Structure to design on (530 residues):
């Protein structure tokens, strides 16, 4: 463990967390409000600063200054713990996602662990504890129902979430997220894998299971991050806000932060797995100069932003699924589709491996 | 008697739901795009743009006292408006006009005329009942204050809103 590694890792952690993720979360909230407003022919927050750009700062001050109220019947320890549990997994997950190529020879990923995607799933599924514990600790019926829904939703979707990405790793050959990106640079993005080796018709055939895989994974991510059309745990109309009903001030803000951080992490994983990570055709990686390293990072976060916009776009288009419909979809359709998809890729795989 | 509502039979394309979802996405994106390009004009940016110019003539805003052409407060403190006011928002203290005054024959004037704008319901009954055409509902609607005391319009404020009204009631001229 040399000191260079420790210093660069610390710099990356601080840089990615405080310079990129946290501002991105607060501006995702702002963007959500603006996008929803535009879709509904409204204007949204446009008063604080130019075009309302300082709105997140105002929101933050408002939430900090609100009364931090703990209901008397709540279980205080878990009541305090739950919001932290909601934020933590979303932020930890970003550690293994490669957000750039290299900058001054330092790889732009905080921890390039060789279990990559398993780490993502292991940590991201902890996010449900924040909701379940929060719902239980509030000692109130609506948050409790929200927590129950959240755990049931998670059980129905975690399976298809995991199975949907198996084809990607079957093609790549290992679980490291950096090697997924490296493979996509060499063979084209998984969502449109026609770069290089495009004469091989099996390569074309591979696009079918890959698109199915992307489709199932994307839907599962929607359920995983509790976004509409699967935001059953916090269904405002049915559960009066769901698991966060009893929370106020910074605790509520942490839940909000956790939801949007999970959305950003989910988008980052989607971009890494299917949209080529930081790669853009024609732009070389960071070994050709630090400017390209910076451009790679910018490309990655631009892609993430586009996926986040898609998240919002879906949210303000589709109505919420009913509880039983969601379970039915998860267990009877996406689980099977993902499973069959694996066999499909396995059948194609021998023909495209060189 | 229970009525069974028949569910429509969906064909396989409708059962996929994808065409409907894509159509929905297209609609919302159209709205988003039109708003972004500024083609949709729905919202009025309130403090900058106001619809004051398009208020109708019969608009009932803040009540106000008016002066006549000679600069006299038209109100003669008859207290009819105080009596008719449904929420009892008006308080009048009447005073006597000294006998050497030019308008001595009017006899009374309002020493204090307070309208509590928290209570006022803008019904316009004061305007209707006034025999002197001294109180009118003007087009001011943004009435604000930090305290309850701020929200009481005193005589000066009412006259400031009202201004001068050239009206039909001319019975207090010296010539008459």
């Amino acid at each position: 463990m040399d000191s260079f590694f420790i210093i660069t890792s610390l710099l990356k952690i601080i840089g990615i967390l405080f310079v990129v993720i946290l501002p991105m979360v607060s501006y995702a909230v702002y963007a959500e409000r603006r996008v929803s407003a535009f879709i509904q022919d409204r204007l949204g927050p446009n008063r604080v600063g130019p075009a309302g750009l300082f709105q997140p700062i105002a929101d933050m001050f408002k939430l900090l200054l609100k009364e931090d109220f703990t209901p008397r019947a709540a279980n205080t320890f878990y009541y305090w713990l739950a919001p932290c549990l909601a934020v933590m997994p979303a932020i930890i997950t970003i550690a293994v996602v490669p957000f750039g190529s290299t900058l001054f020879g330092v790889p732009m990923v905080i921890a390039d662990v060789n279990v990559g995607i398993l780490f993502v799933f292991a940590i991201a599924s902890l996010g449900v504890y924040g909701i379940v514990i929060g719902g239980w600790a509030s000692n109130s019926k609506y948050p409790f129902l929200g927590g129950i829904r959240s755990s049931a939703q998670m059980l129905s979707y975690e399976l298809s979430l995991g199975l949907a990405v198996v084809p990607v790793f079957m093609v790549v050959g290992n679980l490291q997220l950096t090697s997924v990106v490296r493979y996509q640079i060499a063979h084209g993005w998984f969502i449109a894998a026609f770069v290089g080796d495009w004469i091989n018709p099996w390569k074309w055939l591979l696009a079918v299971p890959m698109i199915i895989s992307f489709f199932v994974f994307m839907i599962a991510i929607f359920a995983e991050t509790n976004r509409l059309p699967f935001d059953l745990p916090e269904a405002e109309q049915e559960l009066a806000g769901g698991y966060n009903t009893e929370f106020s001030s910074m605790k509520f803000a942490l839940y909000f932060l956790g939801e949007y951080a999970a959305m950003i992490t989910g988008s980052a994983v989607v971009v890494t797995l299917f949209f080529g990570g930081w790669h853009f055709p024609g732009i070389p990686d960071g070994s050709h100069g630090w400017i390209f390293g910076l451009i790679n990072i910018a490309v990655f976060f631009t892609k993430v932003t586009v996926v986040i916009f898609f998240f919002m776009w879906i949210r303000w288009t589709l109505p919420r699924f009913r509880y039983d419909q969601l379970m039915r979809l998860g267990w009877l359709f996406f689980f099977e589709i993902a499973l069959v998809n694996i066999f499909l890729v396995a059948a194609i795989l021998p023909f495209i491996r060189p | 008697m229970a009525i069974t509502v028949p569910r429509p039979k969906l064909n396989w394309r409708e059962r996929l739901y994808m065409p409907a979802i894509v159509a929905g996405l297209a609609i919302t994106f159209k709205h988003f795009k039109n708003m972004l390009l500024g083609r949709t004009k729905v919202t009025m940016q309130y403090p900058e743009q106001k619809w004051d110019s398009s208020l109708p003539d019969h608009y009932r805003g803040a009540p106000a006292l008016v002066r006549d052409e000679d600069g006299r407060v038209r109100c003669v403190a008859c207290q009819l408006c105080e009596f008719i006011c449904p929420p009892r928002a008006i308080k009048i203290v009447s005073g006597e006009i000294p006998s050497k005054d030019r308008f001595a024959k009017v006899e009374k004037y309002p020493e204090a005329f307070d309208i509590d704008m928290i209570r006022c319901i803008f019904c316009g009954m004061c305007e209707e009942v006034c025999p002197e055409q001294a109180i009118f509902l003007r087009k001011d609607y943004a009435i604000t204050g930090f305290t309850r005391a701020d929200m009481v319009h005193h005589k000066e404020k009412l006259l400031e809103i009202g201004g001068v009204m050239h009206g039909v009631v001319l019975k207090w001229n010296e010539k008459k």
Remarks:
- Strands of chain B lie at 63-65, 90-96, 108-116, 135-137, 152-153.
